[in-house]
């Protein structure tokens, strides 16, 4: 139990459906305790030192009549409009300047007193004097109308604000979509560039392989041509070999023949065979050859002597010309 419940015995303050807490020197409203008595639809809190009403007060929806006159209230809770059953509200002699916008939702309100409050001009004009029952009822009607207009203005303002926020949200979404589109286009372009780069690299590799293959083919063809040329040269070089071999063979045969003839001539000349008939012509041929050789020897000697004389005369004339 709170301090208030210890000081006050609320059961002693109830009479029928009325709960009288006036002149109790209260500085706050005993919300929890009041919620325990939902049958108390009339609540008198007048002539206390209450400066504010907590938001939980708006949950006491069973209240029909509330007297808060002669307190120190400077404001009312924002959700006061939740008191849907409230018909009678006395706020005489407080320090209120405005009412919460939700006040327009008190559709059951029939009686209202706002005298002796420092109200704003428009609200004071709507409230009037409230000097009798009729004026207090008119006060209720006019203040509700005034608050409804304020509520409508607030709703319009909120609607405009929501509309502006919605438009801003649309603009942000449009910018976001535009940015995403640009990013998507950039990614697409980068992907295309990457694909083109890979294609160029592939083509370059393919061209390099083709060039290598072509170079290899050319090298093979060159080697083949060089091999054919070498074969031709070898064939050309090796072609004279049979001729050389033939000449050598003929030279050997001729040498053997000469050796054979020389042997026959020596046999017919130096052995007892010289008297034989077959050696007679051979010896005669040898004698004729020797005679011819002696004649030719003289001719050669004379030729050598003539050449020596001519050379000597040439050297002497050359020496004389130099002197």
UniProtKB/TrEMBL annotation:
It is found in: Endoplasmic reticulum membrane; Microsome membrane; Nucleus envelope. It comes from the Eukaryota. Residues 169-239 are annotated as: Disordered. Keywords: Coiled coil, Endoplasmic reticulum, Leucine-rich repeat, Membrane, Microsome, Nucleus, Repeat, Signal-anchor, Transmembrane, Transmembrane helix. One of its GO terms (cellular component) is nuclear envelope. The keyword Membrane applies. Signal peptide: none annotated. This is Leucine-rich repeat-containing protein 59.
């Amino acid at each position: 139990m709170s301090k208030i419940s210890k000081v006050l015995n609320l059961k002693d303050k109830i009479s029928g459906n009325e709960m009288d807490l006036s002149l109790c020197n209260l500085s706050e409203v005993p919300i929890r305790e009041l919620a325990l008595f939902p049958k108390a639809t009339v609540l008198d809190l007048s002539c206390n030192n209450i400066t504010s009403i907590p938001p939980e007060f708006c949950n006491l929806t069973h209240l029909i009549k509330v007297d808060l006159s002669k307190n120190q209230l400077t404001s009312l809770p924002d959700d006061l409009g939740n008191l849907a059953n409230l018909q009678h509200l006395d706020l005489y002699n407080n320090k209120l300047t405005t009412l919460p916008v939700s006040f327009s939702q008190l559709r059951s309100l029939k009686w209202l007193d706002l005298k002796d409050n420092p109200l704003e001009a428009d609200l004071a004009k709507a409230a009037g004097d409230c000097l009798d029952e009729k004026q207090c009822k008119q006060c209720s009607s006019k203040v509700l109308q005034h608050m409804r207009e304020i509520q409508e203005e607030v709703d319009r303002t909120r609607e405009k604000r929501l509309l502006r926020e919605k438009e801003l949200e649309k603009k942000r979404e449009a910018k976001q979509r535009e940015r995403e589109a640009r990013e998507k286009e950039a990614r697409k372009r980068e992907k295309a560039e990457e694909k083109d780069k890979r294609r160029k690299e592939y083509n370059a590799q393919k061209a390099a392989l083709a060039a290598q293959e072509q170079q290899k083919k050319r090298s093979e063809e060159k080697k083949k041509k060089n091999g054919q040329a070498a074969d031709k040269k070898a064939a050309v070089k090796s072609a004279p070999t049979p001729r050389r071999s033939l000449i050598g063979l003929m030279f050997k045969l001729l040498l053997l023949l000469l050796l054979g003839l020389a042997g026959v001539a020596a046999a017919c000349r130096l052995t007892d065979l010289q008297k034989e008939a077959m050696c007679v012509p051979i010896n005669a041929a040898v004698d004729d050859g020797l005679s011819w050789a002696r004649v030719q020897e003289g001719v050669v000697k004379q030729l050598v002597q003539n050449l020596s004389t001519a050379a000597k005369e040439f050297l002497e004339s050359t020496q004389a010309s130099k002197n």
